[in-house]
Design goal:
Helix 1 (47-69) crosses helix 2 (106-119). The strands form 2 sheets. A 3-stranded mixed sheet has the order 3-4-5. It is of the alpha+beta class. The chain is 30% helix and 27% strand.
Length: 142
Amino acid sequence: MDDSRWNHTLYQTQAINSEGLEGHAYVPDGIKVKTSSPLNDHAGTNPEQLLGMSLSTCLDATLEAIEHERKLPHISAVRVKVAFIGARANYEFLVHAQIKIDGVDSQTAKAMTKEAEERCCVSKLLKNSGNYTVETVTHFDD
């Protein structure tokens, strides 16, 4: 890796999968997850679920920090939907995040959503993909 930022990280981890989609992914000395395709009924977690959990956790943790800065209790929740679309050799994910912030007016909730979207590391990775959207909601879609 030629990027010198690797020399000044706050935290690093690695995830390993050497078994493919129907196998296991793991973090050395950490979590081990059975993996499976979403297109079958085999037990396991799929990449769509892992991406959704990563984004929802990052966005809500970022919102929690924003709430703390505004001297608010933790009042936000995040729901992420991930869809697997396409055809062989041209697959894509569609990712849609809904952010619900109770106890503040609509304008404040939208401003906090925008700030979280700009600060969340996972959101930053996804934002220029063309397949990622975020909205502020008063209730989650079913």
